[in-house]
Amino acid sequence: MTKPSEIRVAASSIAVRRGFLSRVAVVGSPNSGKSTLFNRLTGLKQRIGNYPGVTVERHVGSLTWDGRKTELIDLPGTHSLRPHSLEEQIAVDVILGRLAGAEPPDGILAVLDATNLYQGLFLVQQLVELQKPMVVALTMTDAAIRSGIDIDRDALSEALGGVRVCGVVATTGAGLDGLRDAITTLKDAPLPRKITVWPELDAAISGLRSATGTLLSETECTRLLIDGVTERNQSFSAGLDAEFIARLDALRLEFFAGQPPVAVEARIRYGWVRSVLRSVQQSAPKLYSWQSRITEFLNQPYAGTVGLFVVMAVVFQAVFAWATPIMDFIDSATATLGARVGDVLGDGALSSLIGDGVIAGVGSVIVFLPQILILFLFIILLEDSGYLARAAYLMDRTMRSVGLSGQSIIPMISSFACAVPGIMATRVIPSRRDRIATIMAAPFMTCSARLPVYALLIAAFVPAQQVGFMNLQGLVLFGLYMFGIVMGILTALLMRKTALRGPKPPFALMLPEFRRPNLQTVFFQLLGRVKVFLYRAGTVIFSVAVIVWALSYYPRSELIAPAVENQRQAAAYMLSGAELAAEYARIDNVAAAAQLEQSWLGRAGKSVEPLFRPLGWDWRVSAAVIAGFPAREVVVAVLGTVYAVGDQADEGTLSTRLKASTWPDGGKVFTLPMVLGLLIFYACCLQCAATLAVIRRETNTWRWPVFAWFYMTAIGYIGAMLAFQLGSA
Amino acid sequence: MEINAYTLATLKRGQKGVIKAINANDPQVQRLMVLGLVEGAEIEHASAALGGDPIEFRLFGCGISLRQEHARHFQVAPAGAGD
């Protein structure tokens, strides 16, 4: 029985929580330091989900200060309340409380970059006009001082209707306590005073609202008057009655007198911003920073382009060279562990399950964690330092020649880590045709899941000789990356010439100054990626490894064991000592191989083998490839399991086992043309259920993922066949 | 709009100008205006990619890149000339 006093305590604690728990949206322009600030405020107390119906990541974290708890929602960056891309649309819908399934925020934390007040205030003035509880975090105040900007915070607060302005340096944590206090007391803070930016428009809107009695807010009416009914404001424009729309159109015609409304709005709002800047921002002596020195160097056309290629080459070299020692260690550790399990548990199904199934399967994927870490680290560093935007700028002309814009470069570079976030990153691309062409090209980029397959085959079959400053293995890897890029670009070109023909894509891009990547932000992002990878290794790959093991272990043949016993006795009769041990080992291998061949996996592999025979694959490789369609990194795990069960060499790693693998006639399975074909197959084939799902969600139809799958698989098959047939001829 | 001798596209590297008039009919030009390229804004040609396109400008200390074809829609008065 619960005592009455306990009930009272519980009830009052609910009341306390109700009283203070509030939801604050973190809003700011792209590159305003919003995510760094969000990470700083919430630390590890955050979770990443999705907004209902869309793939935009929803970052929610909590902040407790002085006993008050507030939930922070990190929104995608936006330049204004007139959304230009899908990502901006989500941000605006959440701010306006229009996103289905997401509760409207109680208050706004506006993030304003002190080094870019001009563009930042364009957004912040629109936020003040919402008349919601609001606090402004003035970020990068240290960088502002360095670049000679002195900001009068009181004057800024005054200009923004009296909202609290907290100067912070998110990277060092300076000023954060004041901001935490402001956020957690936001619910009780006074609403911002009304500011006058555009009195004529305000009058027109209040006239419209009183005449029609509409339930839409002032901001929503303003957007409808200026933007009209568009695809991007459907959250509040859908279902408006025709009379209201006709009235809007008439008012627009009268109010703007034929001028483009968006242009008029920009002029008036930036006029206000300039007048505020005059009273708020004083110049101070400018210090010459290393950032501007780098920017200046890369601003020279040739140096910039050469720099881009050097950066990419360094990344690929690092992925292959730096990770090797750690990988070798993990590789041998897994092999030792597997052997130890065999020693302890002896022969039998359990020992085989753990040693050959779980350890060999999952271990062969875990081996690639160091490489994947290094790759993700570089991508995150490039993004966080602002270099990816510069890459987009440098590549725009090239991308235009294939019908894309420089903006497509960012999703493509992200796809080198993983096509799923890469495809999600296409949301910043405003035009749908461009976006889909980029989505079709992205899966060709060599993702980190292809890396295990490449790394395994290259390490085993490409000699490690030095070619110039690079290793031949590194060079082949670089070539495969280039191959992926070329295939992706050709695909985009093909799309833009056929199904997605249309006008030239637009291009306007902010180029942030270089900044030192924030270690905390980098760490959080890296941690997130590692978690996803290990989660997959622990669930999907683990299950596949166990299933594949079972398929390869069962059914046990009743004929093999007596045959082995006979042969062993015959050997014991004729041989002794080391020779006998060697003969025993040979007999066991033959037996294991025979067992594998008649297992379910062996049978399945054999039944599809004819299909892959023109590619030079035996039934084991075929079975591994088939098993890898849900997730391509599984292939290495399957090869690991298959070759562990059919022990070619008792000790030794997967690559030595692959090298030893032969056809029944004794010829090597893994010849150079066959390996080359296998690599090409992997470079093309879309073996990733997650990518297919994300394409489906992002394009809103099954047509594109289905097309992408058939298209890429066909190219992979034909490419592998050509490589094998021409190479073997 | 009359073709003016001075547009954003004719600024040389390191040269500054003040935007005087904008041919705002193109939606892409309107987008640039939302990003702050409006009449009265001072702007500097910071760099150009290979082949001179796109061009990077500095606007109130921030980098923004646009293409030649759009830069032509912005008439400028070179800084220090006229008002």
The CATH topology assignment of chain B is SH3 type barrels
- Shape call of chain A: elongated
Distance between the termini of chain B: 21 Å
Largest interface: A-B, 44 and 37 residues
Helix percent of chain A reads 55-70%
> Given the helix and strand composition of chain A, which structural class is it?
alpha/beta
- Counted up, domains of chain B total 1
Largest sheet of chain B: 5 strands, antiparallel
Indicate the mean pLDDT of chain A.
82
> What is the β-strand count of chain B?
5
CATH class placement of chain B: Mainly Beta
> Reading side by side through the largest sheet of chain A, how are the strands ordered?
2-3-4-1-5-6-8
Order of helical and strand elements of chain B: EHEEEHE
Gross CATH architecture of chain B: Roll
Helical element count of chain B?
Answer: 2
Indicate the percent of residues in helices of chain B. Answer: 10-25%
The CATH topology of the domain at 13-188 in chain A is Rossmann fold
The CATH homologous superfamily of the domain at 13-188 in chain A is called P-loop containing nucleotide triphosphate hydrolases
Rg of chain A (C-alpha, Å): 31 Å
Distance between the termini of chain A: 84 Å
- From the helix content, strand content and strand pairing of chain B, which structural class follows? alpha+beta
Model description:
The complex is a heterodimer of chains A (729) and B (83). Chain A is elongated and about 105 Å long. Chain A starts with a helix and ends with a helix. Chain A has a 7-stranded mixed beta sheet, with helices on both faces. A two-stranded antiparallel sheet of chain A has the order 7-9. The longest helix of chain A has 35 residues, at 519-553. Chain A is 63% helix and 8% strand. Chain A has a domain at 13-188: Rossmann fold, CATH 3.40.50. Chain A is of the alpha/beta class and 729 residues long. Chain B is globular and about 30 Å long. In chain B, strand 3 and strand 4 (62-66) form a beta hairpin. Chain B has a 5-stranded antiparallel beta sheet with strand order 4-3-2-1-5. Chain B is an alpha+beta fold and 83 residues long. Chain B has a single domain, classed as SH3 type barrels. At the A-B interface, helix 4, helix 12, helix 14, helix 18 and strand 12 of A face helix 1, strand 2 and strand 4 of B.
